[in-house]
Amino acid sequence: MDQAPFARLTRNARWQTLALMGLLPVALLLLGALLWGGMRVLEQERSRLELDFNALIAYLQEQEDFLHQLQHQSEMVRRVPVAQAAELRKLPAPSGWDVQLYEGQESAVDLPFTFACAPSAACQGSNATVLSLGSYLANFYATYWASSYFPAAAVFFVSRTEDLSLGVPAIGAFAGYEPISVDVYRSTTRVVRDALQSGDVPVRAHDAARDALHAHVDPNVQWFAIPGAPEKMVGVLAAGFQEGLWSRQGTSPADVFLASLLSRERLNAFKHRGHSGDGYAFWLAHRDQGVLMGEGGPPVQHSLGLSLRMDGLVWKGQDARGDWTGSALVSYRSFFYKNWWLLAGGAMVMLWLVIGGIWYTRWYRRHVLAPAEEAQRQIMESDAFNRTLVETAPVGLCVLQRDTGAVVFINTIAQRWLDLAQSSAAGAGMGQQLKHICSMGAPGVSHGAWQVADKHLSLAYAPSVYREQRVMVCAFMDMTDRVQIEQELARAKQAADEASEAKSMFLSTMSHEIRTPLYGLQGTVELLTSTEMDARQRLYVGRIQEASQLLLQLISDILDMGKIEAGQLSLELTTFSPRELVQNCLRSYAGMAQRKGLLLFSCVDLDIPALVEGDAVRIRQILSNLVSNAIKFTDVGRVAVQVHAHQVEAGRVQMRFEVYDTGIGIEKEQQGHLFQPFFMVEGRAHTGQGAGLGLSICERLAKLMDASIHVRSEYQIGSCFTLELPLKVQAARASQQPNLKGCQVVVRTPHDALSRNLAAWLRFWGAEVEVAEDGKDALMAHQEAAAWIDLFMHRSSQPAQWTGLYLCLDPMQEPSSHPEIDGQSVLSIAQGLERLLLNVALVQQELLTQRQLGMKVLVAEDNPINQMTLRDQLEQLGCQVTLADDGEDALAMWDMEAHDVVLTDVNMPRMNGYELARTLRAEGVRSPIVGITANAMQDEKQRCRDAGMDVCVVKLITLDALAKLLQQFQGIHADGVTADVGQEPAGAKVQVPAKYRQLFLETMLQDVGTLSDALKQGQADKVVYAVHRMSGALVDVGHVVLAQRLQKLEESLKAHGLTDSAQSDVADVLEALHQLLSEV
């Protein structure tokens, strides 16, 4: 049954628990944070109210101090200095106030003051006194409040007996944060005069004695409320004037009082710096005088501090002396307006709780109750369905009690198959096997082990618990049809294996039977090319070589396709030079290109690695197929190979080989089928030989090497096949690189890209290179020490004015000026220049060993043609050859005489090559054994190695390949003595290939004549030049002794000139050269 409802129910219950455990602390945390924040805000509100009260009390005390200092100053001053101000300036009096207003100012930088007097008083005649008192009061006012922290408060001189007053600052003057208006001036002076006249302020007696004055003056400042101004009150103190300071008729100095206006609004404006009001109602009460500030009565609050009431927050506080009591009422509206976040937070918490409750109710209904109901319904449906399924399924099901083996449950099919009934114990036969299954402790499967009558059953079992019993659940399936199918498949596989083995045997046999005569054909033709032939014969031989090469390529393609299908194609990684691989590949197809009149060349970038690791054989096979196809499908123009490389990662490089041609091209419709087996491009211009396997094999080989191959082609323009593959970079071996420093070279080729690439390589090796343009002769500074290279140019194009060394390098045209130099290899060209221009002796060991290996070789070959071919090849390499028709003859000949190397065919009558190798190794023979086979399958090489052979080579074997093979074993003879291969055999004659013999004789005779003429005329430079040329030619044909003699002579001539001794040496050399040429 589907466990999804139960899983959801369990998961939802778990999430519910986690949610409650997680959200409840969060809710409590939020509520606690809200409460803490509220308490914090109330505390801040209490601190604010207390701070405002303390500031007001400090401001009040500051004004009292101001009044006391002014009083004290007035008591000390007997005469006020005469003011320097002008006459008083009269101001217009407001309607309803029967006074005259004057404004005075001592100077433009001093504070102005206001003088008010009733019309009945004698305002005139007192200007000097008023001006002096006004300036006195303004100066004291400015001096005091300039050093005070609090804002300046307005101060007044008020007469008790007259309607006369003097105030600083003047009406309308802005002082501090609140200007003095006419109404404020009028109401303040009226409150003071009313208080004085009512006797609320004690008045001192008129006594000239100073002590008496101090005794009668009340030292305390009396404060009074100002009706209509609940935020203001005025403090009153006797002015303390001496008799000489106030000399008006009808008024004594004792009737003059000081008054200071305390404005809470001014203090609030000073504290809040421009912010709007404090947002609460405030009352200030004196212990004796009652409420002096505030509108209406203060709220009743018996204790000090902050408390919560229905109408708001109530605060009450006292000053330190207990004289003043402040009360404040902050309405809830004002409080929450300032602390809106508190109300919003509470609302959000409540809203969150409400929404959360609704959401939780719905979630619980949907995810807990509903799934539980659905699960119950599914259980009931599942139980009914399972019973029906068990009875109708084509599977035998039974449940066995593990302890007793009794059948707890069994369906109809199991009863029919096993002959068991429910509630019965398993009996003999099948029942015993089931009892054994009940003892198993882990699930398992038994395929085809249960056979009942004509049926094959498969059993799957697993322990379980059913109705509180330990049971084993068993499921049987009818495997009869499957067993029959498997038997048929096994027979089919056996037949396929036999067919595959027959196919492999056929391919192996065909490879051997075809390659054997083909080897004899190609080997004989190769030997024929070393004989003297005319041009027509050489043409015929070339056609034979080309046809046999095509036949060999076709056979190789068919065999490779067989290897791929058989899964026997594998890579053999070796270290090789990409440049040499490409240029050697092109050398193989130079003849084919020349016969069609095509230019075939390569351009290799200088930045490619010197050595890489990869399957060089398979890479060359791909390039050979691409080059061969390009030549076959190109009638005019060129075929070029370009090699590029770029770094992919450390130690690896991405190589790109591009094969271009100027052939007819390939239509876009046919390009998608190029790499399919047996596909051949159709069309009159696309006629060529082959089976259509080459490109298909190339693609499969590329995939095997993690490479890619693709084509770009334009019809009637040409094609470009690109091979891209990753290779591992190998460290370059220490080898002698050409050193062309000091050489001057002129390069000319039929193609600009080839000219630039050849020039770049020669410059890389140190030469000074100039590329000759078509139709223009290049002029070097010293032509005698320079060389002109015509690569793939006809010799008739030799520049007429050139006097230096001239090299015409076209191996397919007769005659070539230097046939020993390979025009397809830039390394060979560089080494030739090094030898010809710098006289560097290139007496290479491989040249000597190719001509005189001096080895004894035992050849076991049953094919007479191949016997003769191998013998001729080995004898041309200077080997002594012993022939045997099979393995038994080879053993007999070995017993008569030991040999340096054994070459044996692997398939021979009586005793084959494998048996011969095993027998020789069993007798303790340690000489190299080389197996020769025409079977190119992968397992053939392994069989050769297992038999004890050192190397296994596949026919066809060229002369160069045979020479390189034997060089691996040169120097180790059968007797264990190492041969000295560096000496030229005594009496050895010069071995000049037949096709180069005529050219060798002509050039040598010409150089001998030049040397003889130069010697007679005493021209040392020409003698040196001729000796240099002939030493290089002798190296090429392997006459080392005479070549070294000429080189020593050249060094002596350069060092000492043409002395008598040198002339004698030259004459001796001429005699030796004449003898040599006569032998050739």
TrEMBL record:
The modification Phosphohistidine is found at residue 1028. Pfam families: HATPase_c (PF02518), HisKA (PF00512), Hpt (PF01627), Response_reg (PF00072). It is a multi-pass membrane protein. One of its GO terms (cellular component) is plasma membrane. The modification 4-aspartylphosphate is found at residue 905. Residues 509-729 form the Histidine kinase domain. It is found in: Cell membrane. This is Virulence sensor protein BvgS.
